[in-house]
Amino acid sequence: MRVHRSGTTLAGAALAALTLLVPLAASAGAAPAPGAGGAPPRGSASMGMGVLAHDGRGSAPGGTSALAVQTEGVDVSSHQGNVAWSTLWNSGVKWAYVKATEGTYYKNTSFNQQYTGSYNVGMIRGTYHFATPDTTTGAAQADYFVNNGGGWSKDGRTLPGVLDIEWNPYGASCYGKTQAGMVAWIRDFVDRYRARTGRDAVIYTATSWWTQCTGNSAAFASTNPLWIARYAASVGELPAGWQYYTMWQYTSSGPTVGDHNHFNGDLSRVQALANG
């Protein structure tokens, strides 16, 4: 009986310790607990979350393009919570993208602090939409995005919206679509976004995903700026049609905020993209 009581006491202590640790993990920006089947809960996706698992990390991420001077930027989502924008600004970060929406079912719970906070320290900022082509049409998701933070205004401080199209964290990598079906879905989104805002959406993707899921389509290279994901010393091969990238997410382990990016040009080019 003594052994039984001791085991019960130890178990209770362990549970108490775990109870204290859970809020600490959440406040530190820990990833959400997996949902059914081990997939993350809907709404928790963020830009580049599949890059390490599918493309890995090169030996020396953070190289620069030979084409132009680079301007440092970050991308954030609800995982970062309240962001230390002044710290980022003082470290040389001059532009930012904030997750606004996912599918037609999720809005970033930290959107106001992140979007307004980046603007208030002087950054040029924009918003992105995490696409889920298996849930609703591209047009429906473009509308949801524009209606919930994804709009654009020619104020010199607002970048065009981004379609984040990458590995499906909730299921099959290509969302159950054929390559032709994926190209059609992306077309549906970008056409609706342009109709609503007058701007061509930036496309964020990884070359390996784009090749697998669109058949390496060149259909968008002449209209939509490219934001490429690759955590290595060089950007590597780009998707078909694009001769250069506009932005490059080069690491998910930067200081203050993990996701850091190069804009392929100086600050005047960032401003030019904002102005259309």
Number of helices: 8
Largest sheet: 8 strands, mixed, barrel
Unreliable spans: 1-36
Rg from Cα: 20 Å
Structure description:
With 276 residues, this protein is an alpha/beta fold. Helices cover 35% and strands 16% of the residues. It has an eight-stranded mixed barrel, surrounded by four helices. Helix 7 (207-214) links the parallel strand 6 and strand 7. Helix 5 (138-150) packs parallel to helix 6. The radius of gyration is 20 Å and the shape is globular.
Keywords:
276 residues, alpha/beta, eight-stranded mixed barrel, 8 helices, 9 strands, 35% helix
The gist of it:
By secondary structure, the protein is of the alpha/beta class. Helix content is 35%, strand content 16%. The chain has eight helices and nine strands.
